[in-house]
C-alpha cells in the first residue's frame, strides 16, 4: 500500500515538473494574461470587468438621480458628454432617462452582480476550496469569459448609437421592446441588447456547467459534500439555478427576436400604433413575462446566494467561531434554490394573470421567507459569543446581513398579492430590491474582494481605507434606499421622469427627500473611488500578504502566496474535517485548517471525531486515484 | 423640514467620517508602524462601537424621518377594498418592523459586545437543533397567518364584479387614456376591433354590435360614490397600467388581452377636498407600466360623484353615435332602425349640449 502511494507520488511529481516546464515554454503573455485557461486569471478578468461595469452602471444611476433630485436643474454641463441626449432646454431627454434606467438595471443585475460576483468568486474559489488544480474544463472556462467579454462589448457599444440603447426597462417587456415605432430605444438598441444577452447567457451556461462539474468531480480526497465550505455550496446552488433558468431567458429572447425581425406573433396581438393597425394577432404579452420572470426571479438568488455563501465563510472566520447551523445553512440554501423556481409570478400579480394563480404564488412566495429568516438568525447566532475581528471583509459581511434583513422584510409585504396591488411598480419595490438584492449582493462582492484579495494578488489591501470605504457605503446605502420606502408608500411610481402628473402637489411633498436621496447617492458613489484606488494601488504596491492572513481553515490558504497554474506545487492536500473548526475547546490555536487530520488534534477532538481517525487511511488511499484524474 | 433632516444627516455623516479619518491618522502615529501583521488592528474597537452607534442613530433618524414623512403618505383609501388593504399593510408593516428591529438590534449589539478581546476565546457553538426549530417554526406560523389573511382579501378583491356595477372601459395608448361608458340603455359595452380604429373612432368601436349604440366616450373618469364600478381595461399599442392611487387600484392594460378590476369608491371628490383641506384636489388615473417617452405624464382626472350627480352626468352624455352620426353607415341594415334612434333629429340641438363635462 505504502509503496503504491509513494510511487504514485513520484509519478505525480514527475508529471508536475513536466507540466511546469511545458507552461514556461509555451505560455506567453497572451496565454497567461489574456486567453488564459487558469481559473485564477479568469476570475481576475471577471472581477476587473465587473468593477468597470459597476462604475459605469453606478454613474448612470447618478445621472438619473440628478434628474429626480433636482428636476429643474440645467444639465447643459453634460452636453459635451451626452450631446443630443440633453434637449434644447438643457434638460435630460425623456427617452434617454428611460434608457439610463434600463441600462443601469441591465448592467448591475447581469454584468456586475452575476458576472462580476459569481463569475469572479465561483471561478476563483471553487478549485481552491475544493482542492482542484483547475476547473473541469479550462478551455470552456476561458470561452465563458470571452463570450462575456463579447457580450460586454456589444452592450457597451449600444450606448453610443444614435437611437440610444434599449429603453424599455431592464425587463424589456414587449410590445414596447418589440416595436421600434413605440420608442427609439426599441430599434437598434434593443437588437444589440438581445444579441448581447444571448452571448451573456451562453457565457453563463458555460461557466455554470464548469462550476457544477468541478464541484461534483474534482473535490480533493476527503472533501465530502458535508465538509465543503458554505461558499462552495452557494456557488453550487447558484450554478444549478443559472443552468436551469438562463435557457428560459434565452428562449424568451429568441421569441422576441422572431417577433421583432421575422414577423411572428408570439407576444403581439391586436396592436394599433402610430396610426397603423399591425397584422399580428393571437400572441400574448403575458407569455413573455412568464418566461422572463422564470429566469428573473431565480436571477435574484443567482445574485444573492454567492454573496450569502461568502459571507458565511467570512463571518465564521472573523468571529473565530464555527458558522452556526452548518447543515441548516445548506438546507435553507437548498430550500431557497428549489423555491426560487416556483415564485416567479409574484412579479405579475397585477398583470392580468388569473387571480387564482396569484393566490398560489403568494403562498409559495411567503414560504421563501422561512429559509431566509433561518439564514439571518444563523448569522446573528454566529456572532453571538464570538471574538469578532472587524476586517473590512467582516464589516461588509455584517452590513450584508443587515441589508438582507432590512430589504428582506419588505418582501413579505410585496409578496402579499393584496398589498402588492398598491405597491407594485412604486418606489417601495425599488427600495426593497435595491436593499435585499442590489446592496446586499454588492456588499457580498466587496466582502469577497477584501477577504480574498491577498490570495488573488499576493498583496494586502489597505485596511484603514477599507474601513472608511465601508462606513461611507453602509451609511450611504441606507440613506439612499431607506427613505425610498416612504416615497413608495406615498404612491410614487418608478421609471417616472418627473412626478408632476400625480397632481395635488404630491411631488412637492417629497422634493426635499428626493434631493436628499440624490445627494446621498452621489456621496455613496463617490466613496467607491476610495475602493478603486485601494484596489488598483494594492495590486501593485500593497504590502506582501502572509500565507494565511485571516487564520482561516479553508484550503485556498494552504497554497503558496502566489499560486501558479495548478494551485499546489506538490500534492493537493487531503481534507479531514469541516471548514469551521474555530476556537475548538482544547486546541492550542483558535483555528484548525481542513487539511489537519484528527489524529494530529487528539486534544481537541470531539468524541465522535475520534472515530474519524480510522478513516484517515482511506482518505490517503484515494491519492492515487486523484492523481490519475489529472493525467489525461 | 425634510431638507433640514437631510442636511442634518449629511452633517452627521461627515462628522462620523472625519472622526474615523482622524482616528486613523492618530492611531497610525501612536502605533508608530503601519498595521502589524496580526489580524486585529487598533480600529477593531472603533469599528465595533461604530456598529452600535450606527444602529442607535439609525433608530433615531429612522423613526424621526418616518414621523416626518407620514403626513405625505397616501391618505386613507377612497375605496372599500382599499381600506382593508391599508389596514393589512400597516399591520403587516408592524410585524415586519418588529422583526426588523429585533434582528438588526441583535446583529449590531452582538457586533459591539463581542468585538475582539485577546483575553477571551470564542465559544465553540456549532449547532442547536431546538433553537433552529424555533426560528423555523415561528416565521412559518407568522407567514401562514399573513398568507391566509392576504389570500382572503385578494380573493374578495378579484372576485366577480356585482351585476349592478357601472361598467367603464379604460383604454391605454401612447400617451393617454380613452374612457368609454356602457351607456344608459343596455349597460353593456359594445365590441371593439382594433382594425376599425380611425381618426374619430379612436377606440375602434364596432357598430355591428348593437350594444355599442348607446356607448359614450369621455375625457375624464366619473365614478359613482358607494356603487360598484367595473373597470374593463385595454391597451392599444404597448403595455400600460391603470393606477388610481387613492383607490388602491392597479391593473395592467395589455394589448390583445382585456383585463378588469372592480371596486367601490367610498369618498367623493368633494368630500376628499374637504377632508384634505385642498379645494383643488382631484383623484387621478396614472400609468405605472413603462410605456415610452410620455409614460410619466399619462394621467387623466377622476371625479367621484354622489350617485345622483353621477346619474345626472351620465344622462347628459351623448352616445358616440349621436355626436358622430356618420358612423350610422357602419351599422348593418337590420339594426339601422335601432341605431337611428340615437341619431339626433336636429343637429343644432346636439351642438348646444355637447359640453363634455359638468365640472
Structure explained in plain terms:
The complex is a heterodimer of chains A (632) and B (359). With 632 residues, chain A is mostly helical. Chain A has three domains: 1-34; 35-71 and 87-260 and 284-541, Cytochrome C Oxidase, Chain A; 550-630, no CATH class. Chain A has 20 helices and two strands. In chain A, strands 1-2 form a two-stranded antiparallel sheet. In chain A, helix 8 (230-261) runs antiparallel to helix 9 (285-319), helix 9 (285-319) packs antiparallel against helix 10 and helix 13 runs parallel beside helix 16. The relative contact order of chain A is 0.10. Chain B has two domains: 1-33 and 42-80 and 98-117, no CATH class; 166-343, Immunoglobulin-like, CATH 2.60.40.420. Chain B has nine helices and ten strands. Chain B has helices spanning 2-31, 44-69, 80-113, 129-157, 269-276, 307-316, 320-323, 336-340, 347-352, and strands spanning 166-173, 176-181, 216-218, 221-224, 229-235, 240-244, 249-253, 259-263, 283-287, 300-305. At the A-B interface, helix 5, strand 1, helix 9, helix 10 and helix 11 of A face helix 1, helix 2, helix 3, helix 4 and strand 7 of B.
Annotate the secondary structure layout.
The complex is a heterodimer of chains A (632) and B (359).
Chain A: H1 2-26, H2 29-34, H3 39-69, H4 79-82, H5 94-130, H6 138-157, H7 188-217, H8 230-261, E1 272-273, E2 276-277, H9 285-319, H10 326-340, H11 355-367, H12 369-383, H13 392-414, H14 417-423, H15 427-457, H16 463-489, H17 506-509, H18 511-541, H19 612-621, H20 623-630
Antiparallel strand pairs in A: 1-2
Helix pairs in contact in A: 3-5, 3-6, 3-18, 5-6, 5-7, 5-8, 5-9, 5-15, 6-7, 7-8, 8-9, 8-10, 9-10, 9-13, 9-15, 10-12, 12-13, 13-15, 13-16, 15-16, 16-18
Chain B: H1 2-31, H2 44-69, H3 80-113, H4 129-157, E1 166-173, E2 176-181, E3 216-218, E4 221-224, E5 229-235, E6 240-244, E7 249-253, E8 259-263, H5 269-276, E9 283-287, E10 300-305, H6 307-316, H7 320-323, H8 336-340, H9 347-352
Parallel strand pairs in B: 1-5, 4-10
Antiparallel strand pairs in B: 1-2, 2-3, 5-8, 6-7, 6-9, 9-10
